[in-house]
Amino acid sequence: MTSRVIRTTRLACAIAALGASLSAHAQSGHLYCLEEGSYRTDTNADDISNSSPFTNGCIRALSDGRAAVLLPSALENINHVPMDQSLRRHAWGFLDENGRLAIRPLFEDVRDFRHGLAAVQWKGKWGFIDTRGRMAVPPRFDSVQDYAEIGLAVAMLDGRQQLIDRQGQPVGEPLDTGIQNLFLADGVPARAAVQYKQEYRGINGERRFAKPGITITQSYGQGLYIAINDEHRYGVVDGDWNWVVEPAYEDILTQHDSRPAVAYSRDGAVLIGTDGKVTGADQHYNSLQPVGKAFWSAELDGRKGYAVLNAAGAVVTTMKPDEAQESQRFQDTLVYPVGETLMALVPGQPAPIKLSGASTPTQNEEGFVIFADQTGAPAGVLTPKGVWLGGDTAPAWLPQAGPMELRHGRLWIRKQEGGLLNVLDADGRVLLKPEAVEATQSMELKAPPLNIPGAPLGILGQGHCQCGMTGAGLILADGSWVTDPWWTDLIALDDSDERRADDPEYQDGPNALKPEQLRYAAETERGLQLLDANGKPLPLPLQQHIGTFRHGYALTYAAGVNRMIDREGKTYDLPDVFQTDIVAPGVVRFLKTASEDARWGLYDFVAGKELAAPAFHQIGHFQNGQAVASLGADRVGVIDLQGRWVVPAAHHGVARINDKLWKVWQAGGQAEDYERAAAVFNDQGRALTSFQPHLQVTAAAGGTISADGEQNRWIVSADGSSALDLQDATYGRVGDWLEIRRAVRYGYLNAQGAWQIPPTAAVGSIFQGSPARALSTDATGTRLIDATGKTVSTLPGGEWRWPQGSDWLLRHYVANGKPMTEYTAPDGKPRMKVEGTASAFSAGRAVTLLSTRAVRAVDAKGALSGPAFDALGALHDGLAAARTDLDFGYVNGQGKFVIPTAYSAVTPFAGQRAVVSTMDLSKIIDPAGNALARVEMVCGMRTLYGSAGQRLWPLSLPARCRR
Prior knowledge:
The chain is mostly beta strands. Helices cover 4% and strands 45% of the residues. The N terminus is likely disordered.
């Protein structure tokens, strides 16, 4: 045997030379009878197709007793067929196993026969023919796949894939719109590899898929999205993913708030607003940089200075380089000199503001900029809305100003010695009237608990030292104050307690609390008086106690009786019980007695009737008509306002996710809550996920809910209507959408086109053997499953494979630095271990690739047998393809060459026939190596010859060839 190094070098040189020749002729069809093969990394040691870069070109491999062949078209006059070796006006037909022309060359393209049918292309459309050439499925599809063993194929029609039967009729339910491609394999049921589209899932379950040529990168603005095209140019698309800003930019940089994005192209930098409007396209700015949150600095071409743009991208002024250098930013306000004058740019103002009489900015209180004169005394205030209080417009008391404090967007200014001077709002208005200012000098001023525009500014009362003026008062929104000589203190009956998160009055929305709805209680010597938002008494008798309002009602007590009141002071009777708490509008939970075994019930005090009898250990606050309730340990669920169970009382705990969803912990066990299995339920009491340990539920800003457990991950619609099990999919948030990318999944289809085993993340083999079995591999290991998906046996660790046609399963591993192969029978029993990377085991032998790169046969006992080769195929019809040096031949079971090495591409024998090729011709041969047919180039066209050398096609040669 020649040195392996020399052989490898010679082979590499030959491949390089021939590959160059093939590439040179690729434009005009293959002049040679070798086609470039496709290299695969998952092939077996006995797969000779991966031992050569070429496949048979002039005659394809035999399948179902037919071999595809490209010959001068039967529809063309032979004298019109070009003789320039271009293969124009050739068409595809099929030879039988003896080399006879079984199906005339009529078709534009064909694929090999599978299960009695072959795909053919006719006038641009695909159909199927049988082995006699009859049209079994008319050509009407855009593309097709081969038929599988179950009698179904995948066909593409009008951009949608569908399953068809052997008559071309649709079978089963339409494929899910999220499937990009479905690939059927053999076996019963048939393995189906599912390739998914990139999907976008909306908050409430709406599905959308990526458009061709558009890749969404992130959400932007008012229902817009940054996207790139196939040329990696950036643009902006709308909610239907149509371009609103054409993809003409090298990059688009978005900000962390609602400011415009900056886009760069060769023509300069521009701003793209959150509405998709482009600003500055004709300005050719060198760069654009944000200045705070309200302005942009645009460098002018030629270093002439800077243009200052507002948040919308409009130019508000230009600055010379020295002016820009000396500018100062106070939050979002810019102060800069123009000669001897100070100017200011304030958010929302269309032009610069001249600061007359200003000297030096010294202090910033969240947008209120304080200026001082040369002595350091306050001389001016610039408000966040651009009102200048300085010079002649400055309040007379401003030079006395000392400490300043911002409360609810208003600037509270105190004297240097501590007394309150006044309050300024963003419009520059002095809010407190003189009598209110005077009252603050001797009374303690308390900030209101809620910041509601139009609400009172503060509450006045006696200080802790009890040394000032007695009484109490309310400073109203107009700066006046209200008091009464009988008032000793004022109490706000609405507060910002975080426990009020379930109360609609304290949330944004149509039911949010309005300033005129605020209520106060005035303490007097005779009791508590209910006041409205303007400090006026409401028609409610004095009470001994008035609680804070919740769900629009407050608990009162007077003359030994508890009652409820609404915000107008109307009273409602309560049952004679020990304790009541408001848990919903017009509804209280109640305990009849103070005993330890007392139970909670529900009572509608507006209607005056009991809703649920006392039976509950606990009842939470209602939201959207539901609340958490308990009957004891591990008996927690969700009830409605009539006390009926929505989620049964059979759980360890329940927590609200949103108005429609609950997180429910499984009962039993002693695990900590974070380890305890949990699931997501909707407001109908339906479990949307399975119970999973360490389940983490996350609500995104847009409303989408994700639930991640140890084994599964779900995307749950915010309305609780559905949950998508992501399995192995990855996802990211794009605005209100979730971008979902799924890996290929494997399932099994029956002959009716229905999923017998639905697709999962587990990688599956085809079903084979009797009874039918398949391998299923996921992160937990490899199992042998039956046709229903049930586990038959679990295999030891390792990457197991079951090649088609193999009697045994196998896995490759390394031991002591050497490659090894282990075989196991379908019943899970170990069979043998073999040195090297071995192939499928069938017909009593396998082929193994040794660490020396030599290939040898292996017998049923795992012993190496026969000589070594550079490549060796499986034994079929008593012969196996083998390669030494550059060429292939065929050896018998003892490794002796029966058909000498003379070919660059070969197929295994099947039905006593094989196809072999050299650079110049392809042949069908028998086990003795006799040619039954050959195809070669004659007169610049493909020509078929029979076993005796007679020309079989074309029937005649062009006249110019005969001459």
